[in-house]
Amino acid sequence: MSLNAPSAPAVDEQNPAPRATPAGTRRAASGTATDRTLRGTALNVFTHGILLTWAAMVVLPLAWAVLSSFKTSDEVLASPWSLPATPRWENFVEAWTTAEIGRYFFNTAVVVTLGSALTLSMGALVAYVVARYSFRGNRAVYYLFVAGMTFPTFLAIVPLFFIARGLGLADSLIGLAIIYSVYSLPFAVFFLTAYFRTLPAALAEAAFIDGCGHWGTFLRIMLPVARPGLVSVGIFVVLGQWNQYLLPLILQSSPDKYVLTQGLANLAVSQGYAGNWSALFAGLTISILPVLVVYLSFQRQIQAGMVAGAIK
Amino acid sequence: MRAGSRGFIVSALAVPVILYCVLVVSPYAQSFYISLTDWNGLSPQRNFVGLANYTRLVHDDVFWISLWHNVIAVVAIPVVTLALGLFFATMIRVGRYRARGGTLNVRGGAFYRVAYFFPHVLSIAVVGVLFANVYDPTPSGLLNGLLGVAEIDAVNWLGDKSTAYAAILAVIVWLSVGFYVVLFTSSMSVIPVELFEAARLDGATRWQTFWRLTLPLIWDTVQVAGVYLGIHALDMFAIVNVMSAAGGSGGPDNATQVLGNYLYLTAFSDSEFGYATAIGVALLLLTLLFAWVSLRLTRRERIEY
User: Fold this and answer.
1) Of B131, B145, B242, the CB nearest to A79
2) Other C-beta atoms lying within 10 Å of the C-beta of residue B270
3) Substitution target from B8, B175, B236 for chain A, most A beta carbons within 10 A
4) How far apart are CA A193 and CA A255, in angstroms?
5) Considering CB atoms only, which of B126, B134, B238 is closest to A288?
6) Neighboring chain B residues of A160 at a CB cutoff of 8 Å
7) Quick one: closest CA in B to A188, which residue?
8) Contact B31/A133, CB-based, under 8 Å?
9) Fewest CB atoms within 10 A around its CB: which of A168, A306, B172, B284?
């Protein structure tokens, strides 16, 4: 297992290549210049045709959901192609209030904010200690956390359900945040340890000489310096916790404690029976848009970091 | 060691390590024991029954159906996703390779990467709810609406035993492909341009360049990606739970049942926690077996450049 810094594969995809090839290399390649230009054009039409087809397959279902969220339920049932006669903004109000999407949204925000803050603070502490201090059991602590990445959460759910109930962590937003945070720790510790190892040791030395204690050095020097690493790990932790489905399904039993994914899945079943399609699509749109905004704002970091996460 | 570092180490690690051991390590450890009991979860009493849950597993038809579905997913999802991912990555990466004399992204490459990747950041629950509606059996569903334009009769995608599971697998491919396009374009972009130029001067076709040059050079990435996809394909719980008929039953008639969902139903609907945990252990063994087999099968000479 090799250690990648989270920012490692952020390769610049827009690298400029020479536009005009020198005459010498031109002659070396087969065919005349016109030939190659024609072939290049044909290739581009073909290439773009295929690439655009998949882009349409990705975008179409999402766009359809957003479009449907502005229709009446009758319009939804009429045809997937029909446009809404008038955009019904009240669908969103209805989904937000009557269908409780607002409550689920709020619950999710609370759990994810608290959960990711806990993950980052605990993860940074563990990673800093493991990366910068040598002590007996250092490796054992590191592998204890990292091993958590290889086990399927599935195996844990039955005992976890009873442990959480016993400790009063079940059916509680704070309890769920704590559980999210410990299940995100393996990932955070793994990446932050690699990150803290890359920071210069001289920084901590200087802080010690200036009279900082261990906590002071960590909080006032190392944490601010590690900010880029914390931000990229933070983005994944937030996305991962925002999209969590299995843990809340097991732990949150009263509907007023549901999180968004769970509430939405529940809404899909109940609204499907009730025939209220417009509220369902509005709920779906409300669940997609915040993620889209976060994604478009941070897409470079998200792509680079997720790719680094896959190739551990 | 610097003064006071022992105190710092202990105080820094105490809370995370204790929470992690109680909430993560201990459930994993307990599950092996629980799988050897007849615990129903309701009474505090649990009797040690040895391997009884495992012998029951061997004679359980639904277990074998679920296992078979998991095996199909583990083979089909990586093969289809990686093939599409490599194909699109090559299209984006070397789309203008001949015309411009170098590896360069196709025009709009950044757009494709951004668009393709997006489904990957959506929750599986959200994707599941979305596609349950795309697959709606009436012509108001997106897919049947499309078929309607071509005057093909509506298909009950999720309600028909013959199409239900394939429909769910297709959703996973849909949401995964973009991730691998980004992964492969990144790993292709670090291959030195001179290698492509040399291949071009030697008269290699695009097809040869891909098979003899690009693929061997990024093989490590493809291999890890395949293992990663397979392990994720083993956990189909969320998508099956959201999309399968009648609120996550794994239906119609277990046509979409997978081990994760069967475990969930056995535990939280039937209150057979001991037996459910045995299914979990089987799932873990399957995961380890898959990782081992796939690493053996894909082992190749490592190429340095």
Assistant:
1) B145
2) 12
3) B8
4) 38
5) B126
6) 23, 27
7) B16
8) no
9) A168
The CA–CA distances, whole Å, from A154 to A159, A253, B52, B168, B259 equal 10, 18, 21, 20, 10
Q: In Å, how far is B126's CA from the nearest CA of chain A?
A: 6
pLDDT tops 50 at residue A21: no
> A251 to chain B, minimum CA–CA distance in Å?
11
Q: How far is B64 from chain A (nearest CA, A)?
A: 18
State whether B224 and A310 contact (CB < 8 Å). yes
Strongest mean pLDDT among B36-45, B47-56, B77-86: B77-86
Q: How confident is the model at residue A31 (pLDDT cuts 50, 70, 90)?
A: very low
SS3 A261: helix
Q: How confident is the model at residue A30 (pLDDT cuts 50, 70, 90)?
A: very low
A4-8, A140-144, A263-267, A300-304: segment of lowest average pLDDT? A4-8
Q: Domains (ranges, CATH) in chain A?
A: 99-311 (1.10.3720.10)
- Those residues whose C-beta lies under 8 Å from the C-beta of residue B208, and which sit 6 or more positions away, are B199
If phi > 0 it is left, if psi is from -120 to 50 it is alpha, else beta; for residue B245 that is beta
**Which among A28, A126, A158 has the least Cβ separation from residue B16?**
A126
Residues of chain A in contact with residue B139, where contact means CB-CB under 8 angstroms, are: 79-80
Task: Let me know the angle formed at the C-alpha of B203 by B202 and B206, rounded to the nearest 5 degrees.
Answer: 120
ipTM attached to this prediction = 0.85
* pLDDT at residue B292 is higher than 80: yes
Three-class DSSP category at B51: coil
- Which is nearest to B187 in space by CA: B93, B82, B117? B93
Q: Pull the structure tokens for residue B99.
A: 């015309």
